Every structure is written in structure tokens, then in C-alpha cells.
TrEMBL record:
<keyword id="KW-0832">Ubl conjugation</keyword>
<keyword id="KW-0862">Zinc</keyword>
<keyword id="KW-0597">Phosphoprotein</keyword>
<dbReference type="InterPro" id="IPR057721">
    <property type="entry name" value="BCD1_alpha/beta"/>
</dbReference>
<dbReference type="GO" id="GO:0070761">
    <property type="term" value="C:pre-snoRNP complex"/>
</dbReference>
<dbReference type="Pfam" id="PF04438">
    <property type="entry name" value="zf-HIT"/>
</dbReference>
<keyword id="KW-0863">Zinc-finger</keyword>
<keyword id="KW-0479">Metal-binding</keyword>
<protein>
    <recommendedName>
        <fullName>Box C/D snoRNA protein 1</fullName>
    </recommendedName>
</protein>
<dbReference type="GO" id="GO:0048254">
    <property type="term" value="P:snoRNA localization"/>
</dbReference>
<comment type="subunit">
    <text>Interacts with FBL, SNU13, NOP58, NUFIP1, RUVBL1, RUVBL2 and TAF9. Interacts (via HIT-type zinc finger) with the RUVBL1/RUVBL2 complex in the presence of ADP.</text>
</comment>
<dbReference type="Pfam" id="PF25790">
    <property type="entry name" value="BCD1"/>
</dbReference>
<dbReference type="InterPro" id="IPR051639">
    <property type="entry name" value="BCD1"/>
</dbReference>
<dbReference type="GO" id="GO:0005634">
    <property type="term" value="C:nucleus"/>
</dbReference>
<feature type="domain" description="HIT-type">
    <location>
        <begin position="1"/>
        <end position="35"/>
    </location>
</feature>
<keyword id="KW-0690">Ribosome biogenesis</keyword>
<dbReference type="GO" id="GO:0000492">
    <property type="term" value="P:box C/D snoRNP assembly"/>
</dbReference>
Amino acid sequence: CETCSQEEAKYRCPRCMKYSCSLLCVKKHKLLQSCNGIRDKTAFVSVNEFTDLNLLSDYRFLEDVGRTADAAARHPIVHSPSTKKFLYGLRNRARKCNIDLRTMPVGFTKRRENSTTYNAVEKKFYWHLKLVFPHCHAEYVLKGVPDDKILADILKPYIDPVESDPVVCQRLKMYTMSPQSDVQILMKIENRKQNSVRYYELDASRSLIDNLKGKVIIEYPTLFVVLKTLKNDMVVLGQ
């Protein structure tokens, strides 16, 4: 027994492979090693050590994944009339604004994240928006951004030397120290081949809705804020 070192071992932990002699030692080893005792189904096994048992384990793991996916597809919320009605209404409203809004199946990350809504009284979208600052490896998620808000005003809390949050300003120092004329807002063009990625250049002086018109949006807009002198691999449409 690797816990008490006194009795002959009878059990082996599926998680960390330590030997134990009794239930008491099993519990003690879990406490000392912070081990949950559950076998790691995705742990790496080298080719030399790979056996039929590992193959069977992988096969059962894939079966579990298949059952889970099937159960998710059968979940009532997937076929909920209210959910379908909401998404249909959202896409229809976007179409009237000349925006090709596309939604993903339930279960996809972007579908779960998306918090975009449409206010019928104000006749206005409140967008879920993601800002990516690739040169600083930073991402920020904004919720409830009104569609009539100017892009420059959306970016002010992040890259404006005066109005930005001190912590954010420090992280995005490369942007705040650069002249505003060097900042460029891009959005990836959807439905292009993997080897032909292109970006739209957005106008910071215009509203969010004006910049989205005539474009395909999958779930919500993702804007890339770049510096013209550094965007080596991000090709703007037409260049």
C-alpha cells in the first residue's frame, strides 16, 4: 500500500494508479493527493503502451460522446417554438436592415454566447459584440451595444488615452500610444475559402448598423482592432 506502507495492496486508483490496501487508505490518498479517483479518459498513452483495453476505452468514450450529442439534439429547448420564433424574428429584422444574420445550431459556443436582442418599441438592435486586439492578444466582450452607436465611441473605453480604463489602457498600451489615424477596424468576410481570408475595413466615424449593412454576420459581429503598420497577414478586401 502506497499510503500506509504496511498492508498488502488490493486496489489501484484508476486516476493516479497508486496502490491502496483498504477503503480507509483509498479515502486518505484521495484527500492527500487531491485525487477524485475517476479515470482520465483522455490521458495520453504512448504507442508502445497502447493495448486492447485502451482501444476499448477509446471506443466506449466515443460512444459516450455520441450519446451525449444525441441527447442534446433531442433536448426540448432545441425544438422549442419560442426559441425558433425568437431566432426567426431576429434574422427577419436583420434582413430588413440589409444584414444577412445567420444563427448556428443549439450547442455551438457562439450560439450559447450570443446575447443579441431586438427592441421592437425602439426599433433598434442591441448587439452582442466581440472586440479583438490581436497585437496585444486581448479580447473583450460587450453586451447590449445599441446599433446606432458610433464605432469610435465603442472603442473609446479601450484605446482612448484619456477616457480608457487604467487597467485596460495599460494592457492595450500599444494602441493608446499610437496615433488614431493608425488604428484600423476590420471584420472578417464570412463564406470564403480558408486560403483566401479577407477583411472588410469599417468606418469608425459611422454607426455600428451602417457598418454591418450588406454583410454576412454569423451570430454576432467580431471586430478586429489593428494598427496599419503591424497587420501583416490581415488582407483587406480589394487590396
